[in-house]
Amino acid sequence: QVQLQESGPGLVKPSQTLSLTCTVSGGSITTRYYAWSWIRQPPGKGLEWMGVIAWDGSTYYSPSLKSRTSISRDTSKNQFSLQLSSVTPEDTAVYYCNAHGYWGQGTRVTVSS
Questions:
Q1: CA 27 to chain centre
Q2: Interval 17-54: pLDDT, tens
Q3: What is the CB-side half-sphere exposure of residue 25 using CA atoms within 13 A?
Q4: Dmax of the chain from CA atoms?
Q5: 90: which DSSP letter?
Q6: Cα distance between residue 76 and residue 74, in whole Å
Q7: Which of 18, 40, 65, 99 is the most exposed place for a label (fewest CB within 10 A)?
Q8: DSSP per-residue codes, 35-99
Q9: Which residues contact 67 (CB under 8 A, 6 or more apart)?
């Protein structure tokens, strides 16, 4: 069974870059046709899909976040990562990694000075 685990700092200052990593076990991020996503949920709001990196390394981003978002991967570590630049308090959320119905437990990130 695929398991995902998010990691990264819980507090980021405004204007800085938020960086999170998702470590995958029980499956390979290069498994053909699999896609690995980042999703977030701000306090009191619904889930927001941020972007995805596919099994072949191709990436797709939410149009509303595309200018600030980058998703990359390290196949040697079976990890994929999220970078969100120029963060504001509105980027405060629980961030999840997800793939085909498998979810990480989520990691809370607060943007505050």
A1: 17
A2: 999 999 999 999 999 999 999 999 999 999 999 999 99
A3: 4
A4: 42
A5: G
A6: 5
A7: 65
A8: EEEEEEE-TTS--EEEEEEETTS-EEE-TTTTTTEEEEEETTTTEEEEEE-S--GGG-EEEEEEE
A9: none
